[in-house]
TrEMBL record:
Nucleotidyl transferase domain ranges (all copies): 10-267
UniProt record similarity statement: Belongs to the UDPGP type 2 family.
A biological-process GO annotation: UDP-alpha-D-glucose metabolic process
Higher taxonomy: Bacteria, Pseudomonadati, Pseudomonadota, Gammaproteobacteria, Nevskiales
Catalytic reactions on record: alpha-D-glucose 1-phosphate + UTP + H(+) = UDP-alpha-D-glucose + diphosphate
Any one Gene Ontology molecular-function term assigned to this protein's record: UTP:glucose-1-phosphate uridylyltransferase activity
Gene3D superfamilies listed in its UniProt record: Spore Coat Polysaccharide Biosynthesis Protein SpsA, Chain A (3.90.550.10)
InterPro entries cross-referenced by the UniProt entry: GalU_uridylyltTrfase_bac/arc (IPR005771), NTP_transferase_dom (IPR005835), Nucleotide-diphossugar_trans (IPR029044)
E.C. numbers: 2.7.7.9
Protein name, as recorded: UTP--glucose-1-phosphate uridylyltransferase
Enzyme class name: transferase
Task performed by this protein: May play a role in stationary phase survival.
Record key words, sorted: Nucleotidyltransferase, Transferase
One Pfam family, short name: NTP_transferase
Amino acid sequence: MRIRKAVFPVAGLGTRFLPATKASAKEMLPVVDKPLIQYAVQEAISAGAQELIFITGRSKNSIMDHFDKAYELEAELAARGKSKLLETVQDIVPPGVTCIFIRQAEALGLGHAVLQAWPAVGDEDFYVILADDLIDGRLQPCLSQMHRVYQQYGTSVLATQRVPQEETGSYGIVDAQPIGPGLSEIKKMVEKPKPENAPSNLAVVGRYILTPRIFKLLERTQRGAGGEIQLTDAISLMLNEQTVLAYEFEGVRHDCGSKLGYLRANVEFGLKHPELADDFRAYLHEMTAGWHDQDKKRKA
């Protein structure tokens, strides 16, 4: 039971990062030295994906260029003897992995974006990865953890995490029955409920393993919250036909769709970067020590 295909909905406008995203994809924003979309792609490949399906829109050509072969750049790096950088560029898409780009003509929501992938996915189970959610799985990537659950149960699996009750209005929230450590069977899903109406504080985040049945259900899903076709609504319909599991992954999620989450991700990944960690940690220590000294002077 191997999942070969991964879908990346990358057609969003990224309005929270304007003007940086006016002419460039938000998924190309770098965290230290790699764009967000590359972290997502590497996670999918580590979980066995061989076909990467990008649902794109306007101003997303930079994503296609990033995963394309750069002949001039590679020739220049080779001529200058920069073999390590050359290897880094060539490994962005490893051998045996293919990229497919599908244009979403209208931005009608996540569910609509996933539906566009149907011709490329066919009748296979597949991953959906939202690059905005940068997940540090620590010991094992999030999708690999989910694939382990999928291999055991052979059904759809959604990544979830506990959120503060007052934040339920920003997520799809599940009502689920525990069946094991960190694993539950979903009984009900609600898209962005008010805190007082939320069935729990267990939120769905940007990693999914789905069966192809979701496409037929998306076809008849009406527009929901925000006037968009919500993936959550289609999954709610699927609950009547198939088991869907909620998996509380091990690791830390950085919401890089928000400016604060994006800044935190850069700090966290900078502190783990093999070339930068020591110098960056020293800089942060020096900077925070300076703030502490200034604070003491003000109080004095």
